[in-house]
Design brief:
mainly alpha
Length: about 130
């Protein structure tokens, strides 16, 4: 179990919110992650310790943290990583790469990646 500080956890939640927004996710979900990040950042006591002492129920006492975000924080505390964030990062990187090709905009790049699982220029060439 890692002992992440609140700032680090808040930064990961904010990054998740940004990538969710970039991917066109429901604005309510994006705001939920941003609100939870602000609550974690301003909390005087350690969120990692709160989880260790009180589990998911303890995390849900943080304003703006519901069951889903509590599980995300648990992943950060337990593993030091957030699998959803890793997936969002890789999808964002692939879409950015594909959008650099003339004639392919951000929306088409995301569709190519999400629907056809094209992640590299070599994948794009093979699909063409």
């Amino acid at each position: 179990m890692s002992d992440l500080n609140n700032r680090h956890i808040a930064e990961r939640l904010e990054e998740t919110a940004g990538l969710l927004e970039e991917h066109g996710t429901d604005p309510f979900r994006v705001r939920a992650y941003m609100h939870a990040a602000a609550s974690v950042r301003s909390r005087p006591e350690s969120v990692s310790r709160l989880y260790r002492d009180h589990g998911l129920e303890g995390l849900e006492t943080i304003p703006g943290v519901g069951p889903s975000i509590a599980r995300a924080i648990r992943e950060l505390v337990m593993r030091g990583r957030l699998p959803m964030l890793d997936r969002l990062r890789s999808a964002s990187d692939a879409a950015t790469l594909l959008a650099s090709v003339p004639g392919i905009g951000p929306r088409l790049a995301r569709r190519l990646h999400d629907e056809l699982h094209i992640a590299t220029l070599e994948d794009l060439e093979a699909a063409a």
